[in-house]
Design goal:
Strand 2 and strand 3 form a beta hairpin. The strands form 2 sheets. A 3-stranded mixed β-sheet has the order 1-3-2. It is an alpha/beta fold and 130 residues long.
Amino acid sequence: MFLGGPVLRTLVRLREPVPRVPAEQRIVVDDLGYADDGIVHVTARFGYMETPDVPGTLAMLDPAETEGPLRLDQASYFLSKIELRRGKAPTMAPWRKRLFIATSYITADAAEYFSLPRDRTVIMGSHIEV
């Protein structure tokens, strides 16, 4: 059910090859060719010395660029997660598989890294055998 207001599809580029991205270059908005459908694509760029703040960055958007004001206090965020599993295929030595899978578990929490509110963040996942 669509409750009105623009729908955003956001792509966050984690690292640019500069320490900090100037505010005027941080956000690029694309209406995807249909100006009045309520769907826009936002690319947010961050330097490698910056911590991404997705809600804070989205708050900087001009309502004219997003086909209306955003209701960030009601926004839902969606993340994907890939879980690695050890498969039977001889792709690498068994000890390397175990080490590779173990290191995948020590990654940072994506919702926290992007400063997303926990109560409005959905994490969907899939499994890949290595």
